[in-house]
């Protein structure tokens, strides 16, 4: 089945994702001062295993580097945040397959952050301008991963988040 890659960010906007469709893929990235453990995959997939829909599990994929012992906590905190855009994700437990065809966002893994890198067709992303950057309507919208005539794409979104007067 086809997938959409992560969409481009819209400046001064946030994306809210509370569920991810089966077939989507996420990647963990080690925080500053940590590196991936040799032999550990950093990818997980939202799967439907007959009775449960869930992310393939990862427990530990990153270990501290020698240089990491000297890095400050501030650097690790800044790694997750972005100056001009944000993504809000809510982790969710296993879901019974007959109730839903979605995973929650990937569960936290020690010393790593996760981001969804491929979305299944049908996935919706909810966009909203950050507070103070919503002077031009529309100030929110939805993009959907679609497949038409063999092409897979995100629907367009005409969101202009600015604080221009």
Automatic annotation (TrEMBL):
Source taxon at top rank: Eukaryota
Compartment annotation: Membrane
Main localization (coarse): membrane
Membrane topology, as annotated: Single-pass type I membrane protein
InterPro entries tied to this protein: IL-2_rcpt_alpha, Sushi/SCR/CCP_sf, Sushi_SCR_CCP_dom
Record keyword Disulfide bond present: yes
Designated name of the protein: Interleukin-2 receptor subunit alpha
Native source organism of the sequence: Pelodiscus sinensis
Upper taxonomic lineage: Eukaryota, Metazoa, Chordata, Craniata, Vertebrata
């Amino acid at each position: 089945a086809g997938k959409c890659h992560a969409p481009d960010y819209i400046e001064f906007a946030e994306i809210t994702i509370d569920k991810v469709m089966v077939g989507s893929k996420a990647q963990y990235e080690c925080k500053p001062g940590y590196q991936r453990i040799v032999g550990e995959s950093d990818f997980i997939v939202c799967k439907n295993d007959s009775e449960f829909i869930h992310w393939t599990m990862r427990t530990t994929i990153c270990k501290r580097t020698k240089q990491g012992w000297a890095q400050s906590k501030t650097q690790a905190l800044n790694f997750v945040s972005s100056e001009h855009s944000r993504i809000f994700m809510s982790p969710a437990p296993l879901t019974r397959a007959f109730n839903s065809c979605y995973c929650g966002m990937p569960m936290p893994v020690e010393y790593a952050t996760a981001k969804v890198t491929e979305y299944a067709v049908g996935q919706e992303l909810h966009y909203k301008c950050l507070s103070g950057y919503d002077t031009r309507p529309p100030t929110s919208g939805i993009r959907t991963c679609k497949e038409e005539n063999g092409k897979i794409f995100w629907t367009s979104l005409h969101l202009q988040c600015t604080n221009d007067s």
